[in-house]
Automatic annotation (TrEMBL), chain B:
<dbReference type="Pfam" id="PF01137">
    <property type="entry name" value="RTC"/>
</dbReference>
<dbReference type="InterPro" id="IPR013791">
    <property type="entry name" value="RNA3'-term_phos_cycl_insert"/>
</dbReference>
<keyword id="KW-0690">Ribosome biogenesis</keyword>
<dbReference type="GO" id="GO:0000479">
    <property type="term" value="P:endonucleolytic cleavage of tricistronic rRNA transcript (SSU-rRNA, 5.8S rRNA, LSU-rRNA)"/>
</dbReference>
<feature type="domain" description="RNA 3'-terminal phosphate cyclase insert">
    <location>
        <begin position="183"/>
        <end position="298"/>
    </location>
</feature>
<comment type="similarity">
    <text>Belongs to the RNA 3'-terminal cyclase family. Type 2 subfamily.</text>
</comment>
<dbReference type="InterPro" id="IPR023797">
    <property type="entry name" value="RNA3'_phos_cyclase_dom"/>
</dbReference>
<dbReference type="GO" id="GO:0004521">
    <property type="term" value="F:RNA endonuclease activity"/>
</dbReference>
<keyword id="KW-0539">Nucleus</keyword>
<dbReference type="InterPro" id="IPR020719">
    <property type="entry name" value="RNA3'_term_phos_cycl-like_CS"/>
</dbReference>
<dbReference type="InterPro" id="IPR016443">
    <property type="entry name" value="RNA3'_term_phos_cyc_type_2"/>
</dbReference>
<protein>
    <recommendedName>
        <fullName>RNA 3'-terminal phosphate cyclase-like protein</fullName>
    </recommendedName>
</protein>
<dbReference type="InterPro" id="IPR000228">
    <property type="entry name" value="RNA3'_term_phos_cyc"/>
</dbReference>
<feature type="domain" description="RNA 3'-terminal phosphate cyclase">
    <location>
        <begin position="9"/>
        <end position="351"/>
    </location>
</feature>
<dbReference type="Pfam" id="PF05189">
    <property type="entry name" value="RTC_insert"/>
</dbReference>
<dbReference type="GO" id="GO:0005730">
    <property type="term" value="C:nucleolus"/>
</dbReference>
């Protein structure tokens, strides 16, 4: 038990911040010179559109290649049926009306 | 002036995080490859509007965009704030999109901010303005923001696609925030909310309330949902309706959920849809929003999933003191925020799961951001 907990712990940190050295977003600090030079060299001139960056976004909805900047995160598919008695009991104690003697 | 060192970034994602954090940490940024492979490359209307808004509230900030809009250079200035500002948010995103970064800019401005925002007040992508009033502003108070001068007034509503709503936001300035230890969620003691309707029958609102209450009745009797039917010029230019709910706990947490229904915009994405899609009937809206709210309560964080990013950022901006919070499962937006906080402010959270409740405990030491813009009185 102990071990699984500690593993989960590092996993979460890794999930968010990545492995110790690699960073998920490019954060190079470079002195900015007036160059537009690294625009695109001939090789990827005929790259099929939208191939490279498909996996950049977290990949929910929109079909937009670049993830939509949106704080709302509701998943309508996973709605539970809150009229179900078992489910009601499961969060009963989250309410002041619940049984909180224990 | 010498050479400015720009932080180099790529892609269009998380533009709001990047601009906001660049401004707060005074670090210039250069973003490349903004939808470079898209059929319609470059910045979108709302993103340009956002840049204008940043420019409007600050002094001496420099924005450069290349011809195609795929490359953006931003050097933040001093956030000035000020009164009687007006900004047209356009109709490609709702006012909620602009409010999220704007409230933080306002807190760290030179003078208190009063700004009138025009556009769409309610849509399905961003939090409703009602949710800002009921949930976001109380969250700020938790971090020591004074409640005087903290307000959002809804003067008229506007639904997509044509908008026409207006709100007035006032934000006080702070010198610094207070670190929090906030792990007790408490129990839900009441549920409040408001429904709205523009250019549709006010009966829609009663139907939504009835459906939502039908589900809540099994849990708690203290449920009050107000109605806000707008008519005439206050109703904007398009039909729409929706609901914003907030569950308040006895430990002072506000868990919100909202939903807005309106006809879709004729998107610039190029899909031509001749037939208008049927709108979700109000009974279903009421039932779904109740389920979403109960889902958020079940998750067990001190804020709902929408406010995670803001919560993390507030913690990171605190003085050099330990903040400890309990969050529900991390949302993608929250995770992005954590990454950007590390990149811009150098604050790294210690993230530990709490398996017994299925929640996550986050701890951090704030970066000690002081409001240097603020006038010394």
């Amino acid at each position: 038990m102990e071990r699984t907990v500690s593993r989960q712990n590092t996993n979460l940190m890794q999930l968010v911040y990545g492995k110790a050295t690699s960073t998920p977003t490019t954060t190079l600090n470079e002195a900015q010179d007036s160059s537009d030079d690294e625009e695109s060299d001939g090789d990827d001139f005929f790259k099929p559109k939208g191939e490279g960056k498909k996996n950049l976004g977290e990949g929910f909805d929109d079909g937009n290649v670049n993830a939509e900047d949106c704080s709302k995160f509701t998943n309508l598919e996973n709605l539970k049926n809150w009229k179900d008695e078992e489910l009601i009991q499961s969060i009963r104690d989250r309410f002041v009306t619940g049984d909180w003697q224990k | 002036m010498g050479k400015t060192t720009y932080k180099r970034l790529k892609g269009s994602q998380n533009l709001r995080h990047r601009l906001l954090l660049a401004t707060l940490s005074s670090s210039p940024i250069l973003i490349e490859d903004i939808r470079a492979d898209d059929t319609l490359p470059g910045l979108r209307q709302h993103e340009v509007s956002l840049l204008r808004l940043f420019d409007k509230v600050s002094d001496d900030c420099v924005v450069e965009i290349n011809e195609t809009g795929t490359k953006l250079k931003y050097r933040p200035g001093i956030v000035m704030g000020g009164r009687h500002l007006v900004h047209d948010c356009g109709v490609s995103r709702s006012i909620g999109y602009f409010l999220e970064p704007l409230i933080l800019l306002g807190l760290f401005a030179n003078k208190p901010l009063t700004i009138r925002l025009k556009g769409i007040t309610n849509d399905s992508n961003d939090p409703l303005v009602d949710t800002f009033r009921s949930t976001t502003l109380p969250l700020l108070k938790r971090f020591g923001v004074p409640s005087e001068g903290l307000d959002l007034k809804i003067e008229s509503r506007g639904s997509p696609p044509h908008g026409g709503g207006e709100v007035v936001l006032t934000i006080p300035v702070v010198q610094s925030l207070n670190a929090v230890t906030w792990t007790d969620v408490g129990m839900v003691k009441r549920i409040r909310g408001v429904t709205f309707s523009t250019r549709v029958s006010s009966q829609f609102e009663n139907t939504m309330i009835h459906a939502a209450r039908g589900i809540f009745n099994r849990f708690i009797p203290d449920v009050h949902i107000f109605t806000d039917h707008k008519a005439g010029t206050q109703a904007g230019s398009s039909p729409g309706y929706g609901i914003s709910l907030v569950a308040e706990t006895n430990a002072g947490c506000f868990i919100s959920a909202d939903m807005a229904i309106a006809y879709a915009r004729e998107e610039e994405t190029g899909d031509i849809e001749d037939e208008k899609k049927e709108l979700m009937p109000p009974e279903d809206v009421g039932g779904q929003i109740a389920s979403i709210l109960l889902g958020e309560i079940e998750q067990g964080g001190v804020v709902d999933s929408t406010h995670q990013g803001l919560l993390f950022l507030l913690c990171a901006l605190c003085p050099q003191d330990v903040s400890k919070i309990r969050s529900a499962k991390l949302s993608p937006y929250g995770i992005e925020m954590l990454r950007h906080i590390r990149d811009f402010l150098g604050v790294k959270f210690v993230i530990k799961p709490d398996p017994s409740t299925g929640t996550v405990i986050l701890k951090c030491i704030g970066c000690g951001l002081k409001n240097l813009n603020r006038k010394v009185s």
